[in-house]
Specification:
about 475 residues; alpha+beta; Uridine Diphospho-n-acetylenolpyruvylglucosamine Reductase, domain 3; 4 domains; seven-stranded antiparallel sheet; 16 helices; about 35% helix
Length: about 475
């Protein structure tokens, strides 16, 4: 149920933010949708902020009037994270886009939360450093923290959880909170940094991020290897990981995804399942990695490696992979995608993907499987006609069964998308009641009026005195 914004608050916002405050329908609609299939009424207003102080001022007003605030980065989330299910204000941080500090000696960078991963890496290009977390979309660093993003490089470099040293966060009451330091480690008090990472805007508004950087590898090589079946590709992946080959990226695309990429990006690939891999290190180390990987691929009837050795070739290849979602959408004009992800222990990955593939065949519905299979994480992108409710029902059934399957294998209902709105029903399946109660208690302690992105992660909270 939408909570109306009092006229007094609207007037104050207009006075404070001027042209950076909007109630125009087009602006609100832009901030009221993401890449999920969910349709929700847009927020009642949008505020474009330029500083932590402005966010704090906005939150003080929101707390005073008990009005919801939904952080908005670049709008690329997949599970309805930014939808204004209870109305309120979308706070757009995209104009907070300054790289504040690069410390080459300590290999850290501090940025405003609206800086995107591509913008940060462009700023680092001449420093011999890079930031490796790559979820595909050119997401904001604040949004990547909020969803605990990972992506294609996670198999070697980890997720946002492992690569953030410190945060600046504005609380529900408008207090500015600093968590962490630039030191590599600390045992000082509760780890608030990791608590905010993955909190999806429900505990605070992230405004600054200090991230860990890495030296640009001396050598980088990318390769495609195609397989006779998805099972062969997945079992080869399991062997690569179990043999401790330090592969930087290992991406699976099923036959449908390869068909989509051929049409969208003109790659000219055989329409068979494939692994798209990348190796980082010294020239000798990279050679050793790919030789070992090639031998494993051959054991599972993998074809010859197709190499992309130059930066231009690698960019073309990875741009095609990152555009896989949109490439699949073009297979069915006018469709929408119900997209989900799970993550399972690497030893159960083949079982989970094969059972999912059988489910898709039985459902007779167009879908693609892609995944960051080096860390046991994969996605199913189901294409549905929005005019046919039965297709949406079928897609959600596939999603339900996939999640049940992953949980039965001691996996998780989401490896990187987050809970948002779309996966709330799975939270209680993965965690016991005591754990859910603790999570709710944290939310209430941080946000007693439930104004920070309400209706996400938990559908409702116990009423609190205001």
């Amino acid at each position: 149920m939408s909570r109306p914004i009092p006229t007094q608050m609207l007037q104050q916002l207009a006075e404070i933010f001027g042209e950076r405050f909007s109630t125009a329908l087009a602006v609100r609609e832009h901030h009221g949708r993401d890449e999920s299939p969910l349709d929700v009424a847009p927020p009642q207003a949008v505020v474009f902020v330029k500083s932590t102080a402005e966010v704090a001022r906005l939150m003080k007003l929101a707390h005073r009037f008990a009005v919801p605030v939904i952080p908005y980065g670049s709008g690329t989330s997949l599970e309805g994270h930014l939808l204004a299910v209870q109305g309120g204000i979308s706070v757009d941080i995209s104009q907070m886009n300054q790289v504040l500090r690069i410390d080459s000696g300590d290999m850290t960078a501090t940025v405003e939360a609206g800086v995107t991963r591509k913008a940060l890496n462009e700023a680092l290009r001449h420093e011999g450093l890079f930031f490796p977390i790559d979820p595909g979309a050119d997401a904001s660093l604040g949004g990547m923290c909020a969803t605990r993003a990972s992506g294609t490089n996670a198999v070697l470099y980890g997720t946002m959880r492992e690569n953030v040293h410190a945060l600046t966060v504005v609380s529900a009451t408008g207090e500015i909170v600093h968590t962490g330091t630039r030191a590599k480690k600390s045992s000082s008090g509760y780890d608030l940094t990791r608590l905010f990472i993955g909190s999806e805007g429900t505990l605070g508004v992230i405004t600054e991020v200090t991230v860990k950087l890495y030296a640009q590898p001396q050598a980088v090589s990318a390769a495609i290897c195609q397989f006779p079946s998805i099972e062969a590709a997945v079992r080869a992946t399991i062997q690569i990981i179990q043999n401790a080959i330090p592969i930087a990226r290992c991406e699976l695309l099923d036959e449908m995804a390869v068909i989509a990429l051929n049409r969208h990006s003109k790659l000219g690939l055989q329409e068979r399942p494939m692994l798209l891999m990348e190796f980082h290190g010294t020239p000798a180390g990279v050679k050793e990695q790919w030789e070992a990987t090639r031998e494993i691929a051959r054991e599972f009837e993998g074809g010859d490696f197709s190499w992309a050795a130059t930066p231009e070739e690698r960019t073309r290849l990875w741009n095609a992979r990152h555009n896989c979602f949109f490439a699949l959408l073009q297979l069915k004009p006018g469709c929408r995608a119900v997209t989900t992800d799970v993550c399972v222990p690497i030893s159960r990955l083949a079982d989970c993907i094969l059972a999912t593939q059988e489910d898709l065949r039985a459902s007779n519905i167009t879908a693609g499987i892609v995944g960051h299979v080096g860390d046991g994480n994969f996605h199913v992108i189901v294409l549905i006609d929005p005019a046919k409710p039965e297709e949406r029902t079928a897609a959600e059934g596939i999603n339900d069964r996939l999640t049940d399957r992953a949980l039965a294998m001691e996996g998780t209902c989401t490896g990187e998308h987050g809970i948002g709105l779309h996966k709330m029903r799975f939270l209680a399946l993965e965690h016991d009641a005591a754990a859910i109660d603790l999570m709710r208690a944290v939310k209430i302690a941080f946000d007693p009026k439930n104004i920070l992105n309400p209706g996400k992660i938990f559908a409702s909270l116990p009423a609190q005195p205001v």
